[in-house]
Amino acid sequence: MAQTVSRPETSAPDGSDPRCIPHKLTAPLPVGDECAYPAYTAEDHDVWRTLYSRMEQLLPGRAADEFLTGLAALKLEQDRIPSLASVSRKLEAATGWRIARTPGLLDAHDFFSYLARRIFPCTDYVRARTELDYTPAPDCFHDIFGHTPMIMHPRFADFYQRIGQAALACRDAAVEEGLTRIYWFTVEFGLIRNPGGLRIYGNGIISSYGETQHSLTDRVKKIPYRPETLAAQPYDIWHFQDTLFVIESFDQLEAEFTRWAQERGLLPAGAAH
What we know:
There is one protein chain. By secondary structure, the protein is an alpha/beta fold. It has a single domain, classed as Aromatic amino acid hydroxylase (Phenylalanine Hydroxylase), CATH 1.10.800.10. The protein has 11 helices and 6 strands. The chain has a 4-stranded mixed β-sheet. The chain has a two-stranded parallel sheet with strand order 1-2. α10 links the parallel β5 and β6. The chain starts with 41 loop residues before the first helix and ends in a 10-residue tail after the last helix.
C-alpha cells in the first residue's frame, strides 16, 4: 500500500531551512523491501523526469566513466520516481549495499552508522520545481540519481563503507571535522582524471545542473587529492564550490583514505584492500 509522500518544510520563522537540520533517530529506518512506495503526485514525477532529462543531456563528457557505467547498470526509471526497494535490490546484487528510507538529513552518527553496515540512507521526496538547478538539502534525485550509481562501483562502495567505519571510531572533534571535509570533497564534490580528461564523480555536483556546468571551468581551482589537504579545506554549502580535489583512480581514493584513517586510529591496521 502506498504511503503519502512526506516533505520537510523549506523555511522556518527565523528564515533558516529546516531541511538542513539533521534528524536524530529514535527508531530504526526501514531497509530494502521495507521501504514503501509513496503516493507521488503527477508534479513529483514530472520534476523527476525534468531533472533526469536535463542531466542525461549534460553529463556525457562531464561525468566520470564509472558513474555513467553505474547509472546504465541501475536502469533507473526516467519517467517516474524509482522505488527505493527496487534500487536497493540492484545495489545489493552488485556490491552488497542496501537502501534505508530516511525522513531527511540525518544526524551524523546515525548516518555514518548505516554507512558502516553498507546501508545508504535515502530520501524519497523530490525537490520543488523552483530548485531544479540546486537544492542545499537532500532529495531523492540527489540521493538516487546522484549517489547510487557510484555505489555500484566495487572500490567506491568499499571506500564509502570505510568512511562510515572511521567516523564511528572518531573521538576527536578536530579529526571528525577533517573527516567531514574529506567526505564533502570526495563523495559529494569529487573529481577524477579519466582517460578522456577531468570528470565528475561527486554526487553533489552530478545532481546539480548549475554545479555540473561550473565545476569543470577555470573558475574552480583543482588540487590533487591528498586526505590531509582535504581535511584542512573549509567548505560552504550555500554557494558553488571554488576549490575541488582530483583523484587519479578509485584505488587511490580508498588506499589514501585508509592510510589517513589508520594513522589516526580510526581503522584497524589490516583494513587495506
